[in-house]
Amino acid sequence: MSQPWQALESLNDVATSHLSWRLLLGDSFDSNRDLLVPINELAAALPVPGRPYEWLEVSEFEEGVFEGYNQKTETYVQVDRRDIVCYEFSFSKLAGELAALIGFEVAFERLGGPMYRFRLGHFGNPNGSGFSLYLAKVSDPRRLDWCIDALLAETQRPFVLFLTSNRMLNSRNETALNTRGCLIIPLEQAMLRGDDGDWNLSQWARGQLVAFRDRLMPPAKTVAGRFPTPSGCRWSEVEMRFSDTEKISVTIRDQRQMLTYSQLGLVDSRSGKPSKQWELLLKFAREHGMMTWLSPDACRKNRKQRELLNKSLQQFFDIEGEPIELTDDRKGWRCVFKLHPEDWEHSFSSANQPNRLQDEW
C-alpha cells in the first residue's frame, strides 16, 4: 500500500497499535510514520500477521511483561510492548502538509459531533472572501452522510471537502455538494509521496483547486491596471494615505483614487492575501516614509522586497525614477512620495517627525 489513505479508511477509529499500523501500511510504514503520534494507551488485542481472522488477546502477567492468547489455536505467545503501543493519525500534521502544498492558512480544529470531521483552514482573506477547507474521515457510508449533512448545514459558502477516497460517497451526497458549488478532493488521487519521500500534489488536484479558486476569487491579474497619472509627473507629487490595512488613497495632482492592494497588483497569487510588498509599504507608512535599522520593522529581507515594490509602483503609476530611495547618508530608505499611515493627521505630517538616529542599512 503506497499511500496511507486506504489504511486510514479501513479503521473505524483513528488510532491503533504499532503492529497494526505496520501491517496496514506495509512497506510505506517508515515513509508515513511522521503522520503517526503515540498516545498514552496500550492495545488490548493484536492481529496475527499473515492470519487475517486471528487475534491475540493481550494481558500483562508480570510488570512490563505481556503475552497474547490466540483463542483459535488456544496458545499463548510473548508480546513485545512496543507492538501494543497505540499511535493516532495526526490530522493536524496532515493539515500542515496540505497547507504547504496548496497555500492556505491553517486554522485546524476538530468539529463537533460523533464523527471525525475537521476544519483544516481558509484560503484567501479572513474577512469572508475565499473559502474553507474541510476533511471527513469515515469508514462507513452512513457516517459520511452525517458528516456532509452537518457541513452543509453549518457552512453556507462553497467549500473544499477532502475525503480519503470516493468509495463512501453516494450520488445523493455528491449532488448536494455540487449544488452548493463545493469541491470534493479524494486524498488518494491528490496527495502522493514522491520518490524522495516528500508529499506532492497531483496535477489533477492542482487543476481542480485552481479552477475552484478562480471561480470564487477572480485572479489578481484581472484587477491590476494603471493609475491615470498626468503626463510629466514626478514621485514628489504623489501622496498616499492608508484608509485601512487593505486600502490606500492615492492623489496625484487632480487625480484621486481609493485603491485596494489587489488593484495595485500587490497580491499574493497563491493565497489572495496582500503580498510582502504591500506589507512593506504599510511598514513605511507607519514610519511616515522613512525606515532605518532602528525602525521596529527593520529586516534584511526588506532589501529585496523594496526592489520588487519599486518595480511594481513604477509599473502601476508609470513614473520614472525610484519611488523609494536611499537616504543621503545611505543608512536608510525613504519614500520620495508622501506616505501616511491610517491614523495620520495633517498636524503630524512626516515633515514634523523628529529625526531618528540612523544605523547602517
Describe, in plain words, how this protein is organized in 3D:
- By secondary structure, the chain is of the alpha+beta class.
- It folds into three domains: 85 residues, no CATH class; 126 residues, Trna Endonuclease, Chain: A, domain 1; 118 residues, no CATH class.
- Helices cover 29% and strands 30% of the residues.
- The chain contains eleven helices and 21 strands.
- A five-stranded mixed β-sheet has the order 8-9-10-11-12, sandwiched between helices. The chain has a four-stranded antiparallel β-sheet with strand order 3-4-5-6.
- Helix 6 packs parallel to helix 7 and helix 10 packs across helix 11.
- The longest helix is centred in the C-terminal third of the chain and has 16 residues.
- It starts with a helix and ends in a 21-residue tail after the last strand.
- The C terminus is likely disordered.
Task: Please supply descriptive tags for the structure shown above.
Trna Endonuclease, Chain: A, domain 1, four-stranded antiparallel β-sheet, 21 strands, disordered C terminus, 11 helices, five-stranded mixed β-sheet, 361 residues
Map the helices and strands.
Elements (H helix, E strand, L loop, with lengths): L4 H6 L4 E3 H8 L3 H4 L3 E7 L2 E4 L2 E12 L2 E6 L4 E5 L1 H4 E5 L1 H12 L2 E6 L5 E8 L7 E7 L3 H14 L5 E4 L7 H10 L2 E4 H4 E3 L5 E3 L1 H14 L21 E7 L2 E6 L2 E6 L15 H11 L3 E3 L9 H16 L6 E3 L5 E4 L2 E3 L21
Parallel strand pairs: 10-11, 11-12, 15-21
Antiparallel strand pairs: 1-7, 2-7, 3-4, 4-5, 5-6, 8-9, 9-10, 13-14, 15-16, 16-17, 18-20, 19-20
